[in-house]
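Retry 2 of 3 after timeout on previous attempt. Resubmitting structure tokens to design endpoint.
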């Protein structure tokens, strides 16, 4: 990781089950479109009540490694 560069993006996961489930759903979805996903940080947790049901919401910043489309020449 000595010479790597990373970028962070903010995503929000929601679940009717728990904060943990909201995190898992958000990460699984991010992995479908973001290559080289490496780590995440929880920025905020909150909830809502919709039709009498609790909705758990988690804001995460996910970080991924920036890679070149073509290999660098040496």
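Retry 2 succeeded. Sequence:
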């Amino acid at each position: 990781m000595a010479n790597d560069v990373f970028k962070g993006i903010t995503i929000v996961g929601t679940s009717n089950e728990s904060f943990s489930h909201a995190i898992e759903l958000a990460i699984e979805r991010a992995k479908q479109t973001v290559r080289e996903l490496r780590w995440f940080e929880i920025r905020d947790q909150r909830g809502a009540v919709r039709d009498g049901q609790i909705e758990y919401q988690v804001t995460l910043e996910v970080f991924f490694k920036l890679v070149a489309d073509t290999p660098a020449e040496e």
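Attempt log closed. The longest helix spans residues 19-33.
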